[in-house]
Amino acid sequence: MKKFNRVLIILAILILTLSIIYLISESRKEIKTQHFTFLFSTSIDTATIIKLANALEGNYSRIGNDLKTQPSDNIETNIYAKRWRYIKATGNWSASGNIEGISKLHFVEQAWGENDNKKVAVHEFAHTVTLKLLLDNEAQPINSKDFDKKFSTFPTWLWEAISVYEAQQFVEPKTLPYLNNGQYPAISEH
Questions:
Q1: Which of 37, 56, 72, 171 stands 20 to 30 A from 106 (CA)?
Q2: What does the DSSP 8-state code read for residue 22?
Q3: Averaged pLDDT, groups of 10, the chain, 190 residues long
Q4: Using CA atoms, how far apart are residues 12 and 160, in angstroms rounded to an integer?
């Protein structure tokens, strides 16, 4: 019985500690550039943010021109030093970055499977421009529920391929085990 009580107390302390850490707000800084507002943890070096800002500003017109649409004028760019802060803010457990509409993006400073966080930033920005292109090509204003239904019919591989291409995140197909094993994805997969 004493062992059970000890385990229960340790578990309660652990849950309490994690809850307190989760609820403590993060101290953040802000830097504005011509097209982006960067909101980031104070634990991230400002020089890192300036490199990200230069990468995004340097790709702003190029990606807009490639996709033949005008990106949003001011894009809120949230960068998280800790993955759990990103998850708390976005509810997204399975990625290192995501967007909220055409003018807000989120990503983790150290992304899974990508050493260059500038490429992650450009990748997420390309998603905002692609989404803007889709919205610009709607014949009439569309409500979010109808758009979500329509958007779900677009293949994920195409959506991701555009961002991978624009961020120059080429992966040699020979390095992908499922392609080496002959398990090719179908064109209809999404």
A1: 171
A2: H
A3: 80 76 76 97 93 97 96 95 88 87 90 79 95 85 76 84 92 79 70
A4: 42
| In contact, 125 and 101? CB cutoff 8 Å | no
Residue with tokens 């300036």: 50
Buried/exposed 99-120: b ≥16 CB within 10 Å, e otherwise: beebbbbbbbbebeebeebbbb
CA distances to 32, 35, 117, 118, 121 from 54, rounded to whole Å, are: 11, 11, 12, 9, 11
What is the three-class DSSP state of 139? coil
With respect to CATH, is domain 27-180 assigned 3.40.30?
A: yes
Residues in contact with 140: Cβ distance below 8 Å, sequence separation at least 6, in sequence order? none
CA distance 106 to 124: 8
In the chain, where the domains are located: 27-180
